[in-house]
Predict the structure.
Amino acid sequence: MKNRSRIRKGFTLIELVVVILILAILAALIVPRVVGRTDDAKRSKAASDISTLRGQVQIYKTDVGAFPESLLDLRTRPSEGADGLRGPYHDKELPTDPYGNEYDYQVSSDGEEFTIICYGLDGAPGGEGNNADIGEEITENQ
């Protein structure tokens, strides 16, 4: 009688197919949930940035008596009209929105209101879903 010892040197085709099938099922369940969160995270970051910038603009207004002409005034001293400035109010580079665009900042003609807006994925005013604007109008009384 011959003693045949069979030495296994790898996986069988069936074992590989089963493992690949299990990985495919897991990927089909997990990937859609993770991918959908990216857009939510970008919108949350934009809202957080706007909130931070809004607070810094309001502190500037308290110190100087008027809203800054641009968000850059939060980092650098304006050439004129900034008596009482205690800044800089933002110590890092001004953030861009999560889509790579600058935040839109506007002061009303009467100087009583300002807006900071992220225009969303498309970078244009209006839109729905991921293209929707993020931001709000702020009045001096708030």
